[in-house]
Amino acid sequence: MIERKYLIASVAIIVAFAIGLVAFFAFSADKPDGLEDVMEDNGIEEGEPIWQAPFDYGDDYMGALFAGIIGFLVVFLVLFAYLRIVAKRKSNEEKK
Amino acid sequence: MAPVIWILGWAVSLIFIALAVLRVNKTIDEKAVPFMAILAAGIFVAQMLNFPIIGGTTGHLIGAALATVLLGPWAAMLIITVILIIQGLIFGDGGITALGLNILNMAIIGSLSAWAIISLVPKKYEMTGIFAAAWTSVFLAATACALQLSFSYAIDPAFGIDGTIAIPTMLASHAIIGLGEGVITTGIVVFLAKVAPETLKMRVPSEKGAGA
Q1: Does ipTM surpass 0.85 in this model?
Q2: Does B45 touch chain A (CB under 8 A)?
């Protein structure tokens, strides 16, 4: 169903992410991003969320790595399933 | 954000998402499906990796320009939207009310502005065009966000940030973050051109009647 090259690409992305995460924790993890910085400087806080998300991005390396892999799989599976249905429907319509 | 701003954000976003869904339904190529899903998953993890910029601030990839270069603007819009929805629903990154504006800024404005630049720059200067597209996508997404914060503040100072502060600070930091987006986007495209050139042929042109 999925060609071998895509499995290799997926593993390569996860490995690159695992390495990138080391740099993230070394240089960036404790600093705000562009929008958060502007919000902090102006005393704006995000309100109470109306939706309680089941996961977060984790506070340490292993937690973030786990979150990244979960996110990778969820995004992949959601889009793969949806796009495959759409593509199948299109090719069936074209055959008619 | 003032309610009227995020409600408007959702309204505009839903129109564009509907257009993107219709467009992708018409143009999708079955062979491109695994690549599209892996690209989206890769953009998701890349968005987690903030890189430092000056002044103790960080930035991270949006990925709209990368997805636009590789897949065209409508598919890019769709996959960045899915990423933002999953970030919000599963990881609590970005609230549900703000999600409409996040989709508008990053998925829609990000993809369309990147596409406009790519289309304007001659093929001869493709890589420069991709870099410029990536920078522009971040800069315009940040501009839109700063304007929304400013309008919100103008409606009710309890929400949003004074425009005289929000606009210059957001634009200054994102002018630099955009350079990071440019370097990463161009780097990935160059890398893909070397190791998997077929991935650069999946782009769906936005012109009328163009197929996958």
Answers
A1: yes
A2: yes
| Amino acid in the structure at residue B94 | G
Question: What whole-number distance in Å separates Cα of residue B78 and Cα of residue B84?
Answer: 10
Alpha carbon distance B83, B64 (integer Å): 11
Task: Please check whether residue B130 is in contact with residue B69, taking contact to mean a CB–CB distance below 8 angstroms.
Answer: yes
Report DSSP state, residue A58: -
Element (H, E) at B189: helix B163-195
C-beta atoms surrounding A62 within 10 Å? 10
Query: How far does the CA of residue B179 sit from the closest CA of chain A (Å)?
Result: 13
Give the tokens for residue B115: 């596409």
pLDDT band at residue B212 under the 50/70/90 scheme: very low
- Answer whether residue B210 shows pLDDT above 50: no
Helix A61-95 with B3-27: angle, nearest 10 deg = 50
**Beta-strand pair B51-52/B58-59:** antiparallel
Q: Using an 8 Å Cβ cutoff, are B2 and B151 in contact? A: yes
> Do A29 and B174 make contact, defined as CB atoms within 8 angstroms?
no
